[in-house]
């Protein structure tokens, strides 16, 4: 199966292409306008041209090699269209329509037909029941939703089970100006599921972090193995807590719910989990941009006590640690700021001051610290310690996160300068603390499971694919 | 377990690679126990069969014998050494403690008379219910010598074999203090699961309690996971309680359910 034809096509057929603006087959064509490959509108009952391209009646009548078919036709005709695509040698397809495995026995039969054709011909089929995918950096919008083509290119790859969640994440990054390397809604996962998507985007040059939205899949073990095998940082958001175990003969059965297994499995396989779409994107931005944390120990420096307490509470509650600093570090800080409010971690300088950046640097250099969180409200007379941070990031390979706030117009240059040097800035103590907690969990897992996934067993294979187990995966 | 949304179209079954296991399992013994139950048309093993299966996976179980009557029971008890327990052993009885107004389990039998009485009571109750039943005579464990844990495992649709460890005994489902791991489980993973339990301090000698042999518990978790990996015919394994004492981890009760 060639997932590359799905996500990097040179030639696309839009099956169900339409002149009617309210049709999915129209919006798909509109969204494809920035695409610089070949586009073939397919519709047996249309003639002439649309957007300067000639309608054809069937994919089998296209002379060109078609890599990808975007199938914008109703569910009942989809199995036949997929067979035509297979006959025409199309490598990949996206099926937007619902009415398949999620919709009762008739839908299941339809999906079975699609899967059988796709499997026989090695077709990579995304969907059914999805809004599709978008790769902003390639101008490739394989989605029927309007507006997603505006999402800028970034480093985060979203792989969501739900197309709706994928789009929600995409619009969040649009609003924050961060952007995405790719956005994929998996839908019913005919032949392209989490393992295939993770494997592809792990090798995608523009992707520096992968975030997963998971509701549930028959291929849980493969999902875990693909996540662990990825060189790119992976974060997961598992939803659907109310799923309970269907087994009740034993205590074990009664105590084993699907949701618990996902959370335990992600932890076992070294993948940190979060509990909101915001944490998913914040985490990806931080893991993708900066150095990766080597452990769970957080050094906190705050210029105001109150937000510092919020931050310390939140980090400790969610798995991060606030280690004691080395004596030398405390002495150095006491030397910088004689009579300092509190020279233990979290360090409280009491107020912003010209030496604040030196205090941050002293904590960052301490070997006990894996992640640095700085909280400093903006003061016009001082600004943020941009110059000191620039020299710091050149000497210390640790993630540094800033929490700050102030009148946006006054401090946006300083914020931009920090982000430019790989120091992400958040505008509330909670948001900064949550992302630092995620870094701490990532660091703890890196310390434990991630680097040595199998202390006495075989490693995942070197080509980036996990060893498949096949254990009961087809139940 | 339900798959929200819909089932995946493809599976990994075409590319099956064996999972590595670490504990040593007597595969012939496992197979013959499973075959015997299958031949009798059963998917639920008796406690004695379940414990033999655990033996085959290297999990420690109490000395025991399955007997037909009081005379055999006394002979077995004397060979094992007093005190012993007597339990109903029948495919027809899965909830032994609730069976026949409590006749199904007799604890702390200190002499031959007590063993004979308990055995007769089980046989009479079985006769009254019209079921075939034998009697399991087993070395009595001193529960206050250790901490009761649950170790379990099951074959799941999404993840295949998984193992579980948690606070065991009668309050297992009240506190739901459990941790799961995907099997096979490494020693480090099993240890992390044990350490993640709220009840973990009980194993390190909390307020004068006997500390537990955590290494033995870790091996038990691994062995249960490995059993599921090696024998796909097994659907569920429930070992509750596992008594974890300074001397090791012993499976005091066990329930194994085979796939339909």
From TrEMBL, chain A:
Residues 466-475 have a biased composition (Polar residues). Keywords: ATP-binding, Ligase, Nucleotide-binding, Transferase. Its EC number is 6.2.1.13. It is an enzyme of class 6 (ligase). One of its GO terms (molecular function) is ATP binding. Residues 6-100 form the CoA-binding domain. It catalyses: acetate + ATP + CoA = acetyl-CoA + ADP + phosphate. Residues 446-475 are annotated as: Disordered. Residues 449-460 have a biased composition (Basic and acidic residues). It holds the Pfam family Succ_CoA_lig. InterPro entries: Acyl-CoA_Synth/Transferase, CoA-bd, NAD(P)-bd_dom_sf, Succ_CoA_lig_flav_dom, Succinyl-CoA_synth-like. PANTHER family: 3-HYDROXYPROPIONATE--COA LIGASE [ADP-FORMING], ACETATE--COA LIGASE [ADP-FORMING]. This is acetate--CoA ligase (ADP-forming).
TrEMBL record, chain B:
It catalyses: acetate + ATP + CoA = acetyl-CoA + ADP + phosphate. Residues 51-139 form the ATP-grasp domain. Coiled coil: none annotated. GO terms for molecular function: acetate-CoA ligase (ADP-forming) activity; ATP binding; metal ion binding. Keywords: ATP-binding, Ligase, Nucleotide-binding. Its EC number is 6.2.1.13. It comes from the Archaea. Residues 1-23 are annotated as: Disordered. The keyword DNA repair does not apply. SUPFAM superfamilies: Glutathione synthetase ATP-binding domain-like. Residues 7-17 have a biased composition (Low complexity). InterPro entries: Acyl-CoA_Synth/Transferase, ATP-grasp, ATP_grasp_subdomain_1. This is acetate--CoA ligase (ADP-forming). It comes from Halopenitus persicus. The lineage of its organism: Archaea, Methanobacteriati, Methanobacteriota, Stenosarchaea group, Halobacteria.
């Amino acid at each position: 199966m060639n997932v590359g034809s799905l996500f990097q096509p040179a030639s696309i057929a839009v099956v169900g292409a339409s002149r009617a603006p309210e049709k999915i087959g129209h919006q798909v064509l509109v969204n494809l306008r920035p695409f610089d490959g070949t586009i073939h509108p397919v519709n047996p009952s249309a003639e002439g041209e649309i957007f300067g391209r000639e309608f054809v009646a069937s994919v089998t009548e296209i002379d060109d090699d078609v890599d990808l078919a975007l199938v914008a036709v109703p569910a009942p005709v989809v199995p036949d269209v997929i067979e035509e695509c297979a006959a025409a040698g199309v490598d990949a397809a996206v099926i937007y329509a619902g009415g398949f495995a999620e919709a009762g026995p008739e839908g299941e039969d339809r999906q079975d037909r699609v899967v059988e054709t796709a499997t026989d011909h090695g077709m990579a089929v995304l969907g059914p029941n999805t809004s599709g995918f978008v790769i902003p950096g390639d101008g490739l919008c394989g989605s029927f939703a309007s507006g997603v083509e505006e999402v800028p290119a970034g480093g985060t790859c979203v792989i969501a089970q739900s197309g709706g969640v994928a789009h929600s994440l995409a619009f969040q990054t649009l609003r924050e100006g961060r952007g995405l390397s790719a956005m994929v809604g998996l839908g019913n996962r005919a032949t392209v599921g989490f393992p295939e998507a993770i494997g592809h985007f792990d090798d995608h040059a523009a992707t520096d972090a992968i975030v997963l939205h998971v509701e549930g899949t028959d291929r849980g073990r493969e999902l875990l193995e693909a996540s662990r095998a990825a060189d790119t940082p992976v974060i997961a958001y598992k939803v659907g807590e109310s799923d309970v175990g269907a087994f009740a003969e034993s205590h074990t059965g009664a105590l084993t719910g699907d949701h618990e297994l996902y959370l335990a499995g992600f932890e076992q396989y070294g993948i940190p989990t979060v509990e909101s779409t915001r944490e998913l994107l914040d985490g990806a931005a931080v893991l993708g941009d900066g150095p990766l944390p080597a452990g769970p120990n957080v050094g906190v420096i705050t210029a105001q006590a109150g937000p510092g307490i919020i931050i310390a509470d939140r980090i400790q509650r969610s798995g991060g640690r606030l280690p004691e600093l080395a004596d030398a570090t405390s002495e150095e800080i006491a030397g910088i700021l004689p009579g300092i409010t509190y020279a233990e971690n979290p360090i409280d300088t009491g107020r912003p001051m010209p030496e604040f950046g030196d205090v941050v640097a002293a904590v960052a250099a301490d070997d006990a610290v894996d992640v640095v969180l700085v909280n400093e409200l903006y003061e016009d007379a001082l600004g943020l310690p941009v110059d000191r941070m620039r020299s710091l990031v050149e000497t210390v390979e640790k993630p540094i996160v800033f929490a700050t706030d102030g009148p946006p117009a006054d401090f946006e240059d300083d914020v931009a300068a920090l982000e430019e040097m790989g120091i992400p800035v958040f505008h509330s103590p909670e948001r900064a603390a949550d992302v630092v907690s995620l870094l701490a969990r990532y660091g703890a897992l890196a310390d434990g499971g991630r680097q040595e996934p199998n202390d006495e067993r075989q490693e995942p294979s070197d080509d980036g694919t996990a060893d498949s187990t096949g254990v009961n995966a087809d139940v | 377990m339900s798959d929200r949304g819909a089932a995946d179209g493809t599976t990994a079954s075409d590319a099956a690679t064996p999972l590595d296991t670490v504990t040593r399992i007597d595969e012939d013994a496992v197979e013959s126990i499973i075959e015997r139950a299958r031949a009798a048309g059963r998917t639920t093993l008796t406690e004695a069969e379940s414990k033999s299966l655990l033996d085959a996976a290297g999990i420690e179980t109490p000395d025991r014998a399955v007997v037909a009557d009081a005379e055999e029971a006394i002979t077995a008890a004397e060979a094992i050494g007093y005190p012993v327990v007597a339990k109903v052993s029948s495919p027809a009885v899965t909830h032994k403690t609730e069976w026949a107004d409590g006749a199904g389990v007799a604890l702390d039998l200190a002499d031959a008379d007590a063993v004979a009485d308990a055995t007769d009571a089980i046989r009479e109750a079985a006769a009254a219910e019209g079921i075939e039943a034998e009697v399991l005579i087993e070395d009595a464990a001193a529960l206050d010598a250790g901490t009761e844990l649950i170790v379990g495992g099951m074959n799941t649709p999404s993840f295949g074999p998984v193992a579980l460890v948690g606070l065991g005994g009668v309050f297992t489902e009240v506190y739901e203090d459990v941790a799961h791991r995907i099997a096979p489980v490494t020693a480090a993973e099993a240890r992390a699961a044990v350490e993640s339990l709220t009840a973990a301090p009980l194993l390190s000698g909390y307020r004068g309690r006997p500390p537990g042999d955590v290494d033995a518990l870790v091996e038990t978790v691994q062995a249960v996971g490995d059993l599921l990996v090696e024998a796909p015919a097994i659907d569920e394994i429930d070992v509750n309680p596992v008594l974890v004492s300074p001397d090791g981890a012993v499976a005091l009760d066990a329930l194994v359910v085979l796939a339909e």
